[in-house]
Amino acid sequence: MKIFVSFTLWLLLGSVSANESTDCQQTFPQDIYAALREMTASLVQLKADMRLQTQEQVQQKTEVEKLKTELEKLNKQQLEQAAQQKTEVDKQKQQQIVQQVAFTASLVVAGETTLGPLASDTTLIYKHVTTNIGNAYNSNTGVFTAPVRGAYNFEWWVGAHGDNSHASCAVLVKNSEKISMAWEQQNHHFGIASNGATLLLQVGDVVFVRQGANCLVYDNENHHTTFSGHLLFPM
User: Fold this and answer.
1) Which backbone phi and psi does 227 adopt, to 5 degrees?
2) Which pTM value belongs to this model?
């Protein structure tokens, strides 16, 4: 194979004239060198362009990552602000609800009852709740619990049929302190006693009404015996 290629080249070279051979020897290397220089310059330029393009892509990627980070940060801040605003709104609503306190209740829901005379003071449990804004009054215990520090006004009414021996009476109690009594005695017919008081209460203070010892308390569907209270203003 090598002999065949060598022979072919020898024939080709033999077919070229001396002048043509000399011209080729003069022009061919120059063209090659020019082409090589041009290709080298092109490769250098291409390499530089590729390097620049790579740097731009890296820079663009960095900018995209930076923008993404900033966007995530802004989203997080917006979510935190929205959560904080919701918390503030809920707090304001809760404060507004807490500051709306009022109730009225009477002793019996239906029918009639006479309580007493009893040997000791006994807490009255007012079962018929007409109003209980703020749910501070408990109809299972008869106790009002202050939801907010402030000034409260209370009124209580107690009725009984006179029997010539027992009065109708009830005492307003704050925590364990007796505040004031409503007292009425009728020898005959029906009598009602009432009283009222304004109290400064702390959160959690309790207020209730006790039937006085040896006293009578009566109520029916007309709701003679009642307990009412409301928040005048918070403090």
Assistant:
1) -140, 125
2) 0.61
